[in-house]
Write a structure and sequence with these properties.
about 140 residues; alpha+beta; 5 helices; about 20% strand
Length: about 140
């Protein structure tokens, strides 16, 4: 298992801090402003799903106005494409259900069972222009 150097950890922390500022700016926009940005750029994933209004705004805030079709690293591999070496992705937020690490014998209440706890993680997406077809022999 590879471990990040101190310098890599510091750079990663700087990227996360900068992204948090972008998230904060997008959150401060009115709903009308967010919708206008999302309508203007209207990005779709390589699996055919439209990105959320917030993720459209986050990508636009990172300079991605010309993007049309995006996907994560593994999503592109499933589509027969690979991200070109040296390309940098655009940060977005994606939901994940929080895993319950508690091994308590207590059963969850009905409300807890119906409402899983959702948290948002930072992920990277790449435009189709940042990818290439995988050559098969």
């Amino acid at each position: 298992m590879r471990h990040a150097t101190k310098e890599q950890q510091e750079k990663a922390q700087e990227r996360r801090t900068a992204f948090k500022e972008i998230v904060k700016k997008v959150a401060e926009l009115s709903e009308e402003q967010r919708l206008a940005i999302a309508e203007k750029i209207s990005i779709t994933t390589c699996e055919g799903h439209p990105l959320s209004v917030h993720n459209n705004c986050l990508i636009a805030s990172q300079g991605g106005e010309g993007l049309t079709l995006v996907g994560g690293f593994k999503q592109w591999l499933k589509q027969g494409r690979a991200v070109k070496k040296g390309e940098h992705g655009y940060m977005i937020l994606f939901p994940r259900e929080k895993k319950n690490g508690d091994n308590d014998a207590q059963e969850p209440t009905r409300d807890e069972a119906e409402k899983p706890e959702i948290r948002f993680l930072i992920g990277y997406v790449f435009d189709i222009s940042q990818t290439m077809e995988i050559q098969t022999a």
